[in-house]
Amino acid sequence: MSSNTFLRNVLIGGAVAAGAAAWAIKPRSFTDKQHNYVPAVPHAWYAHRGLHDAGSGLTEQYAIESGEYVARARRMAMKAGYGDPTVTTSIAPENSLAAFAAAAEAGYGIELDLQLTKDGQVIVVHDPDLKRVAGDPRRVADLTYDELTRIPLFGNDAPGTAVASPRPESDDRGTAPTGYFQHVPLFSDVLRVVAGRVPLIVEYKFDDNAVFGPREEELMEKGDALLQAYDGPYVIESFNPRAVEWYKEHRPEVCRGQLSWPAKVDGKGGVAEWAAGLLVFDFLSRPDFVAYDWSGGNSPQVRLARAMGATAVSWTVRSSDELAQCDDWFDRHIFEAFVPER
């Protein structure tokens, strides 16, 4: 084979690969958006799991700015009618009604996570179990909503705590504690509290993003039914491409987003998760926006998706320094642990 033929084959192969990548990553078309009257991701700062005084992001790494953030979360929660200055434990733990009320009071949009209880109720909680947020190792899917109402989130912890202290097994799990506390809420109650005042980014959360079976379908159907009855701005997102595809097929008028991050081939999810990080599964869902780990905004896949019309949303920015590093690569930001300037 001559050098010219080899070079030509290399160029053709590169062009084909580039074309395939662009086709895979391509977001929903402008014509489709117009036809279905799809709104854009509302302009707002989005408070990660609500404006919270205990939970995600409140670690030593971000202590320089998190004190002001925690104080603001408590002020806004009390302004909204939750707790009072005598409460020395958490007033507005992550993904609680108080945290969502605080965010709405402050004028921030909200990012939150949906899961199902044992009895099929749509609740708002991030982790598959309650160990980090309540010191209780039991799985959410193994508990009824009634049981969840008796488990306090960060119930014995001071404001600014990132991980809840262990809950003794000797605690009476059949009786709610006395005094002020917050618990895992129903999604319907969250919608009632927010009441359309600020936009929502609603994440459909699953244990395994490579699986999409009857329980995953149930969450999609029940979560969407609540959103259809809701009078307020929202968009949806998921790490699971099939969940985003569900909205493509069933609710094309809803703005939908693909969550992802720059995974490694040798990571927990292996090749499939690495490929998802390259956004190659976007052909299933044709998302309107890409919600990507803030550190990966300058990656070729995010830049390409943005160039082709996708809105880029960062998660989760936790300091002014991180915001400065990624601001040029994103159109919207999900934040926590610091108070962003307007």
TrEMBL record:
Residues spanning the membrane: none
MF-aspect GO terms: phosphoric diester hydrolase activity
One example of a Gene Ontology biological process annotation: lipid metabolic process
Alphabetical list of Gene3D superfamilies matching this protein: Phosphatidylinositol (PI) phosphodiesterase (3.20.20.190)
Stated name of the protein: Glycerophosphodiester phosphodiesterase
Domain GP-PDE: 80-342
InterPro entries from the UniProt entry: GP_PDE_dom, PLC-like_Pdiesterase_TIM-brl
Highest rank taxon of the organism: Bacteria
